[in-house]
Amino acid sequence: KSLLPDAVVTGADLSPEALAVARGNAAALGLDVAFVRADALRACGASGGADASGACGAAAAVPGLVEACPGPYDVVVSNPPYVPESERGALRRNVAGYEPAEALFVPDDDPLRFYRAIARAARGMLRSGGALCFEIHEAFGGEMLRLASLLPDFDVVMAMQGAGEVTGPQLM
Fold it and tell me: pTM score, two decimals?
């Protein structure tokens, strides 16, 4: 926001605590950013129907991304949880000591769950030709390239944890 002062920026998170920290950071930096509570795993609206309980939008305790952030946006940037539970013990203390577990870890049997959900939501949030940007785990670059190929109308940019950018078809 500080580099693009005319940009309209919305930050979303499930955690009220994370949103409070983000609001404080934006205020301290003098940045005009809107913050909303949203559940990236709730599939509603343009991204695909109701959640498991059948609730969407105003009926849901926490709205999905499309409902909370309808856009349209030129860019969606996400750093979702991506560290497999099996790597919990190996995570550096400077990361694990400052982030809540729900912001870091994903089940070993479904490490891309947030990426799939956010990619589905992005279809209802992005303008045609928009860009979806992710930080990813280095072990999942190939799987993320396959996921990106399912979004032919958008550019998908992925930065690997400590390894630079993944490039390939459909990526900028």
Answer: 0.80
